[in-house]
Each structure stands twice: as structure tokens, then as C-alpha cells.
Specification:
heterodimer; A: 2 domains; 20 helices; elongated; B: alpha/beta; Rossmann fold; 2 domains; four-stranded parallel beta sheet; 8 strands; binds iron/sulfur cluster
């Protein structure tokens, strides 16, 4: 019977998870093509250092250590999960124990110690958010769902750890009744502290609650992930793999513009001749909405953990401007999900008259950016908010000719006299003789 | 104060059948802004002193297109880039030095895809080379000995291109005390001028970015704020004035420090 219930849980859990993953994938592919498959050795290196090794977290050591506790516990506990799955399918109890023996005790003890550290980390994180009210974790863009999401996942972590210890503690107590012990580092003490004096039957119930509870939490977590900022535990890996490997100062050159400019500069090219296929819809210059961004921008948006390191290092944000690079990423994600929902309900050609620029991100925000790359530098999972900002500016300037008036003047000067100010090119050498 | 030596343009060199080793890309600030012109002269003096055969483009130089690109006008940027590439290629330029990190970044990173391939270095890197090669000696210079100097990282030199050490190495050569600001190198705070902000009013906020950055610099108690960018220089100079400290604190380009120390 329990095998059947387990199998149903297992299959439904993974079915919905894969469905979610495919959905996320198709959302990301709403974005435009960009090639990020070159130089795979450098890409692997970046992924191992930044995602697996959490290199960029350690510029802020305290949260890095706390985060490491959760992260290590998360990774290592997967080993225990494999056993839980095996036990579930075979209706056995601690399947691996006879094979591993002493090493098994070590493994579970290790997991238990990490779980305690994770618990400490979780409580510290909850207090930083809710009691210490760390500014970067309490900005107005986090009001509502983002804040609840962050707290919810931390609470889930506490519940999960509680289940693990209920399972192991009760199991130890059962063995203690028989005058034996697993000798697990933490639960061997819990067995006396919390589970001493219970009858074997009751202890079995506790053990089962722990086991099934753990399992249900895992599947809940798995299926909650794609709706949460915690999706980063999965997406941090592909996202760092597909990082921009160029110098941060290098902005993309728009190929569509290059074509036009070449035509303008070379009179031998017939400027009325059509290049490309007839009927090609010319794509917009820059980005107004999700579909004008690249898939990497959209992957970035899904990967964002909303940690606010970018925003807390942003010169514009620190001096009270509206711009927050974190909000740029959150808006991008929200808009992407909104479009996808629309497409799901109304078909492929769905439009709602809204757009990322305007309905989510305002012009005032994007004009406040100094393109300083601090946000890009700070992001622990190599997200690039700046490239979205630049693409939105491109749309405004090239498609709508909308920009602060001083910039119109600056651009006119460059076009007329080759400098952002009104000086004559013939005066360029004046410094030599002044 | 005119330069006491002749600075040739590419056209003049070509007319004489000569080719320079390096092109000095002066940039718009360096050509037109009175404060930045002094930095330009300092660089020229150092190059001349070290017998580097260099030339400038003079009237044939034009904006790299950086501010247009950062403002979102890719058309204007690429027009500028293509025109500049035509000029540079006509003179068969191979190597470029510039004192402006914005020009540096654009020429180095964004021109190659448009057909302009040159070896581009920042002036602090070139000066460091010259010192290492023994062409410029600062031994025994007392000018900045023991002075407290802090260095403000230009975003387009530091984070954008990972050049952090060259300017610092030069300051150490001055026998001065280099004091870092609390935000420096990768965590350095922008001066507020990048991304075409130099040419517009800031958005509504509660502070100017250059004031925030100047506070970082003041905290170090340095008497000299060194930079490697004409825009940063302007922003920091304004910041210092805002605190009425212009008599106590100088804002100087690293090239000026070196030229002064070498008594050029
Ligand atoms: S690049 Fe723009 S958004 Fe990012 S930190 Fe700098 S000013 Fe803020
Ligand atoms: S973009 Fe990066 S730094 Fe900014 S909130 Fe998201 S994960 Fe954090």
C-alpha cells in the first residue's frame, strides 16, 4: 500500500515539476537569440566558481557563511533523499545502511550537523529580514509577494529540518529500546531528550510522520520553486554557464544598425535594394517589451534571487533615484509571466496593450543609470541588469526619439561637429599651442 | 603655457614620410575642456620626455561615439565609429593610447566588430610600461613624497575593463601614501558621469552621486584625489568645491602627478 501511495506522490511530484520546467523554458525562449555557446571551457570554469563555489558571495562574508550552511545542507541532504526514494520504492527501511555501515553513520551524522547549521542560518536570515530589517531586504519593491515568498521558503526549511530530526530521532529511540543505537551525531541525543519514554508503536508513528513529511516537503518545494525567487538554486547553474564572458564595458553592437550605417556610408550600395527576405518583419531597435529582450535577459530574470546586492551598490539608488536594478529584474520576470499567461489563455497572438517599458519600468528609472556596472559586478549569479536598461534606452531613443532634452543636444552636437559639446573640429589641436 | 616641443598630427607625419609608434587619442574632453587639456599636456610631455614617437589626429579626430551609445543612440555611435575607423585605417594605425577610459573602452571593445582592430591602452598602462623600461625615472623625487593620495577608480577603466593596478602602481612610484577609499576597485562607486549622465541633469533624488563619492574621498583624509578619467576629474573637482575644500584637496590625473614628480 505504502509503495502505491509513494509512487503516486513521486510520479505526480515529478510530472508537475517537469511541466513547470518546460513552461519556464518556453517563457525564456520568448526572448531573442543570442549566442552564448562559445568557449565552453571558460563557461564551465565560470559556472563551477560562481555557482558551485559561490565565489561572488564571499565579498560579503557574513551572509555568505550563513548562505553556505543552507546551501551545503541542501546539496548533501540530496544523498539522504536518494535513500528515501529507494526505501519508498522498495518498502525497505534505511536501504543503504547494511552496505555502508560505518560510513553510513558518518554520512547521516554529517547531514544532521549540516541541518543544524542550516537551521541556524535560516533563523539568522529570518531575523535579518524581519527583525533587523536590513535595508536591502526591505525596500518597497519587495512589498507583498516577494517578501512573503522569502519568508515562506525559510519557514519551509525549518519544517523540513524538523521532519528530518523527527524521523531520525524517533528511529534512534526505537533502536535504543532494543538496547542498540545508530550513533547519529545529533539524533542520538534527541532520542533521549525528546523521544525517551515513548512506546515503540508511538515512535513508529513519529518516524513515519517524519519520513512522509520530509517527502511531501520535498515535492512541495520542488513545485513551488518555479514560482519563487528560490528557483536560483537550479538556474544559477545555467545562468552562470551562459554568462557574458566579454569585458563588462563592451556593449553589443546592433547588427541591424550596422547594415543601415554601411549603406549610408557607401554610395555604391543601392540604399533602396532590399536585403534579407521580403516579408521579414523588421525587428525593433532596442527593447520595449519582453520579446525584444534576449533569452539570456529572461533567464537572468528567472534566476534573480531578489537579494538586492545590485541595488545596494547602485550609485543612482544610493542617492535616492528611482532606479533599482533589482526591480528591473523583478519587473522583467513579472511581465514575462504575464505575457505567458495571456498566451496560454488567448493564443499565440495575444496582446494586452501593455509593455515592460511604460507599464512596469518608467523612463525616469532608466535615465538614472550611469552604466557603472556595479550591479553586474555585485550579482552573485552573474545577472546583467544593465543590458536590459541599455536596450530600453535604445528603444526610447531610436524608435520614439524620447530622451532628456540635454541628450538631444548632445547627440546633435556629435552629429554636427563630432563632439558632445559645440566646438569646432578645427579647434581640436588648440591645446598644443595654448 | 604651450608645450615646448612639437606635437605632430598624423597628417604631418605622413607628409614627412614618417610613421609614429603610437597614436595619442586625445578625446573630446582632452581637446576642449580647459581642465582636461592640462591632463592632455601632461601625457604629451611624458611621451615626449620618454622619446616615444607619437602623433595625434588633430582636426581629424572625432567623438568615439561613446556618449551616443550609452544614451541609446546606436546610429550615431556606429556612424562615428565607422568614420573614425576609416581615418585610423587610412593612417594604418596599429597602437592607440588614450587618457579617457570611455574612449579606451569604446576603441578597444566596441570598434573591432565594426572592423577597427587596434591595440588600445590606457595612459596609465603606457606610463607604467615606460617606467618599467627605465625610460622615466622618478627616483628621489620629493614632490609627492609621503603625501596622502587616494585613487578614484573610473568605472570604464576598473569594472568595465579590469584595470585596477596600473594607476596604483604609478602612485606607489611617487613614494606617496596610497590610501584606499572604503569603496574601491571592484566595489568603487561611480563619480556620476558615466552612461551619458555627464551631459544631462541627474534624475530626481536626494543627493548628487559625485557628492556621495567625494565623501568617500574626504573620509580618507587624503590631500590629493587622483583619477584616470577627465569626467571623473570634473565630478570630483565639483564635489570637492561643494565641501569648500578646494584649497586643501587637489584633484589630479595620475599623468599630472607623474609629470609633476618628474619635473616635466
Ligand atoms: S549600471 Fe546602472 S543600474 Fe547598474 S549599478 Fe550602475 S547605475 Fe545602477
Ligand atoms: S540581480 Fe543579482 S544582485 Fe540583483 S537582486 Fe537579483 S540576484 Fe541579487
Amino acid at each position: 500500500m505504502s509503495i502505491i501511495i509513494f509512487s503516486i506522490l513521486f510520479i505526480t511530484g515529478f510530472y508537475f515539476f517537469s511541466k513547470n520546467i518546460l513552461q519556464v523554458r518556453s517563457n525564456i525562449l520568448l526572448g531573442k537569440e543570442i549566442n552564448r555557446t562559445d568557449n565552453s571551457s571558460e563557461r564551465w570554469k565560470t559556472m563551477i566558481l560562481v555557482a558551485l563555489g559561490q565565489k561572488k558571495m564571499f565579498t560579503r562574508p557574513i551572509p555568505a557563511l550563513l548562505h553556505l550552511c543552507l546551501y551545503a545542507a541542501f546539496i548533501i541532504t540530496q544523498i539522504e533523499l536518494v535513500e528515501i526514494f529507494t526505501d519508498g520504492f522498495t518498502n525497505s527501511h534505511r536501504f543503504f545502511k547494511p552496505f555502508l555501515d560505518g560510513f553510513y553513520t558518518f554520512m547521516i551524522s554529517f547531514i544532521e550537523i549540516l541541518s543544524i547549521l542550516a537551521l541556524i542560518g535560516t533563523i539568522a536570515f529570518l531575523s535579518r529580514r524581519n527583525l533587523l530589517k536590513l535595508p536591502r531586504l526591505n525596500m518597497k519593491e519587495l512589498a507583498g509577494w516577494p517578501k512573503n515568498d522569502a519568508n515562506l521558503i525559510l519557514l519551509m526549511e525549518i519544517v523540513l529540518v524538523t521532519f528530518i530530526f523527527t524521523m531520525n530521532g524517533a528511529d534512534e529511540a526505537i533502536l535504543n529500546l532494543k538496547g542498540s543505537s545508530y550513533d547519529f551525531a545529533v539524533s542520538s541525543h534527541l532520542a533521549n531528550l525528546l523521544f525517551g519514554g515513548f512506546e515503540e508503536h508511538t515512535l513508529h508513528v513519529f518516524e513515519q510522520i517524519g519520513w512522509w513529511g520530509h517527502l511531501i516537503m520535498v515535492f512541495t518545494f520542488l513545485n513551488y520553486l518555479p514560482y519563487s525567487k528560490h528557483f536560483h538554486i537550479v538556474l544559477a547553474f545555467p545562468n552562470t554557464y551562459y554568462s557574458n564572458l566579454e569585458k563588462k564595458g563592451k556593449f553589443t553592437n546592433l547588427a541591424s544598425v550596422t547594415e543601415e550605417v554601411k549603406k549610408m556610408m557607401d554610395p555604391s550600395i543601392d540604399s533602396f535594394a532590399t536585403t534579407g527576405n521580403e516579408g521579414d518583419v523588421p525587428s525593433r531597435f532596442g527593447a520595449k517589451d519582453i520579446t525584444d529582450l534576449t533569452w539570456k535577459n529572461l533567464l537572468d530574470a528567472y534566476t534573480c534571487t531578489e537579494c538586492g546586492r545590485c541595488t545596494s551598490s547602485c550609485p543612482a539608488n544610493q542617492t535616492g533615484k528611482l532606479l533599482s536594478p533589482r526591480k528591473i529584474m523583478m519587473d522583467t520576470r513579472d511581465r514575462m509571466v504575464e505575457i505567458r499567461e495571456g498566451i496560454r489563455k488567448n493564443g499565440k497572438d495575444f496582446t494586452d496593450g501593455k509593455s515592460l517599458l511604460g507599464d512596469y519600468i518608467t523612463e525616469e528609472e532608466i535615465w538614472a543609470c550611469t552604466s557603472c556596472n556595479a550591479c553586474v559586478q555585485e550579482c552573485p549569479v552573474n545577472i546583467d541588469p544593465l543590458s536590459i536598461i541599455v536596450d530600453l534606452r535604445r528603444y526610447l531613443v531610436m524608435e520614439e526619439s524620447k530622451m532628456p532634452t540635454e541628450l538631444t543636444g548632445m547627440l546633435t552636437n556629435i552629429e554636427n561637429n563630432g563632439a558632445p559639446w559645440q566646438f569646432s573640429p578645427s579647434d581640436r589641436g588648440n591645446w598644443i599651442n595654448e | 603655457m604651450s608645450t615646448e616641443f612639437k606635437v605632430s598630427t598624423m597628417a604631418e607625419m605622413m607628409a614627412n614620410g614618417e610613421t609614429p609608434d603610437i597614436l595619442f587619442w586625445v578625446g573630446c574632453s582632452g581637446s576642449f575642456d580647459d581642465r582636461a587639456k592640462k591632463i592632455t599636456k601632461a601625457v604629451a610631455k611624458i611621451l615626449h620626455h620618454c622619446n616615444v614617437k607619437f602623433a595625434v589626429l588633430g582636426a581629424e579626430e572625432s567623438c568615439t561615439g561613446d556618449p551616443a551609445k550609452r544614451a541609446g543612440n546606436e546610429f550615431t555611435f556606429q556612424m562615428q565609429a565607422m568614420m573614425n575607423i576609416q581615418v585610423l585605417d587610412a593612417y594604418e594605425v596599429k597602437k592607440i593610447v588614450t587618457a579617457c577610459p570611455h574612449c579606451f573602452n569604446t576603441l578597444k571593445n566596441e570598434y573591432p566588430e565594426l572592423g577597427g582592430n587596434y591595440e588600445v591602452i590606457h595612459h596609465t598602462q603606457l606610463i607604467q610600461d615606460l617606467i618599467n623600461q627605465g625610460k622615466l625615472g622618478l627616483e628621489g623625487s620629493q614632490t609627492y613624497k609621503g603625501k596622502k593620495i587616494t585613487f578614484h577608480d573610473p568605472c570604464y577603466l576598473g569594472r568595465a575593463n579590469d584595470v585596477y593596478e596600473a594607476p596604483r602602481a604609478l602612485i606607489e612610484k611617487l613614494d606617496a601614501e596610497l590610501i584606499e577609499m572604503k569603496r574601491c576597485k571592484t566595489t568603487g562607486l561611480c563619480c556620476g558621469a558615466g552612461g551619458a549622465q555627464m551631459f544631462k541633469e541627474a534624475e530626481k533624488g536626494n543627493k548628487e552621486i559625485n557628492i556621495e563619492r567625494t565623501e568617500d574621498a574626504l573620509e580618507t583624509n587624503a590631500t590629493i584625489i587622483a583619477t584616470g578619467c577627465p569626467f571623473c576629474n570634473t565630478m570630483m573637482t565639483d564635489g570637492v568645491k561643494n565641501f569648500n575644500k578646494e584649497h586643501d584637496i587637489q584633484v589630479l590625473d595620475v599623468a599630472e602627478l607623474i609629470a609633476n614628480a618628474a619635473d616635466l
